[in-house]
Amino acid sequence: MTANGRLWRRGLAVAGFCSLVVGGFAICSSWSGDLKASGLEKLHERRANKHGQCAEDGAEYIDDFEGTWYWLRSPEQEKRVVMSLYTRYCIRCHGVDGRGIWDIPDVPDFTNARWQATRSDGQLARAILEGRGAVMPPWRGVLTLEEAWAMARYIRTLVPGTEMSKPDTSKPDAGKPDAGKPDAGKPDVRKPKT
Questions:
Q1: Is 48 helix (H, G, I), strand (E, B) or coil?
Q2: What angle do CA 70, 73, 78 make, to 5 degrees?
């Protein structure tokens, strides 16, 4: 091959390389145009802004878009779900009120305030997940960690006196200060102390 042929090949190689570089820049510039058109440019500006606010509208934004999203239930829904779990897995041994079934040995009485005071929520959740000896089966794999903690919090409500009392909806008469009491209007007939 002659020197003229080699020169010709090198020229074609350089021209091909230059066309690839120019084509790459053209593609990148069209992508940035699409970025501006799609509104993602504002997102990138907000992420680049150090103050946590968008420069144009002053609105706050959350910088962390990654992670796991959990959908939360309302407290009433959560209580219903935990009560259904208790009914499904615990009621046959611990009973409806948490006192335990009389013919099963070593079943704790959840209504005993002394028993409740000697155990933390973490200990209850661990006992739920790992089981207790040969009598209580482990619920790991059946209940999640969050459900076990919710069950431990539910067990705390089985102590008598911890439930919420109903609000008093009766309205006493405004003119009489003791109108809501059953002894209102009766004279005080207590005997003096001697």
A1: helix
A2: 120
